[in-house]
Amino acid sequence: MSEPLVKVETRGRVGLLTLNRPKVLNALSNEVIDEVANAMKAFDADDNIGAIVITGSEKAFAAGADIAAMKDWSYTDVYKQDYLGHQWEYLRRVRKPIIAAVSGFALGGGCELAMQCDFIIAGENAKFGQPEIKLGIIPGFGGTQRLPRAVGKAKAMDMILTARMMDAAEAERAGLVSRVVPSDRVLDEALEAATVIAAMSLPSVMMAKEAINRAYEAPLNEGLLFERRNFHALFSTHDQKEGMNAFIEKRQPQFKHE
Ligand code: CO8
C-alpha cells in the first residue's frame, strides 16, 4: 500500500496530522489539502478531541504549493476551480485550537498554512518565507494579509517583496511564532501544549479562540462585546462551576467539556 499524503493519528485528546510528501518537501497539492481538510473536519466533530497539531518533517513543514502541479495552469483553470478557496479555506472554520509544529522550511503556502493555525511552535532550524515573487506570482493563501498582521507592515513588505527567509529567532522576535525550541523537541513541545489545552474545558477553549480571532476581524467595541457575552455565557456551563469550586476546594478540576 502506498504511503498516505497526510498521516492522521490521535494522542489522547489531541489529533495529530503529519504532512507526508518528504521527497518534495511536503509540497501542498490539492490532494494534500483535501486530506488535511477532511481530517480537520473529523477532529472538529469528534467530542474526544480537544486540540489539533499539524506538523511536517524535520527538513520541511511545507515548501509551498506544488509548483510542478501548478506550472501549466491557465487563468481559467485556477479561476474555475477557485484554487485556494473551498477546502483550502476550511482551516479557518475549525473551532478547536490548531497548533503548527514547524521544523525546517515553511515557505509560500507552507508559511500561509502555518499562519492559518492558531499559533506556531518553531524549531531552531525553522525558516519562514513567502518566495512567490520569485515565481512571478504573489502569495494567494493569506500571506499578504496575515503576515503584516503577525509581523507588521515593514517586515511583511521586506519578506514578500525580496523573498528573503526569516529564521526562527527573528520569527520569535517579530511575533510570528509563540515559542522556539530545539529542533528535535518541536513535535513533543506542540503535543504537550495541545495536551494542556485539551484538558481544559472545551467550551471555554473554543470561546477563547473565537474571541481572540474577533480581535482581527471586528472593531474593538464589537470585539469587546463579543468577548463579554461569551464570558457571561460560560457561567451556564458545568465546567465553570467545577473549575471555580475546584479552586476554592484546592483540588484539580474534573471537566466534562460541557
Ligand atoms: N513544489 C514542488 N516541488 C518542490 C517544492 C514545491 N513547492 N519545493 C521543493 N520541491 C521539490 C524539489 O523540486 C526537489 O525535487 P527533486 O528532488 O525531484 O528535484 C525536492 O523537493 C527537494 O528540493 P530541493 O532540491 O530544491 O531542496 P533544497 O534543500 O536544495 O532547497 C528549498 C529547499 C529552498 C525549500 C527549495 O526547494 C525551494 O526553493 N522550494 C520552492 C519554495 C517556493 O518557491 N515555495 C512557494 C511555492 S508557490 C506557493 O506556495 C503559492 C502560494 C499560493 C498558496 C498555496 C497554498 C498552499
Automatic annotation (TrEMBL):
One GO MF annotation is: enoyl-CoA hydratase activity
Q: What class of enzyme is it?
A: lyase
Q: Name one GO biological process term.
A: fatty acid beta-oxidation
Which parts form a coiled-coil structure per UniProt? none
Record key words, sorted: Fatty acid metabolism, Lipid metabolism, Lyase
Q: Which reaction does it catalyse?
A: a (3S)-3-hydroxyacyl-CoA = a (2E)-enoyl-CoA + H2O; a 4-saturated-(3S)-3-hydroxyacyl-CoA = a (3E)-enoyl-CoA + H2O
Task: Spell out the family assignment given in the record's similarity comment.
Answer: Belongs to the enoyl-CoA hydratase/isomerase family.
The name on file for this protein is enoyl-CoA hydratase
What does it do?
Answer: Could possibly oxidize fatty acids using specific components.
The Enzyme Commission number assigned here is 4.2.1.17
Q: Which Gene3D superfamilies match?
A: 2-enoyl-CoA Hydratase, Chain A, domain 1, Lyase 2-enoyl-coa Hydratase, Chain A, domain 2
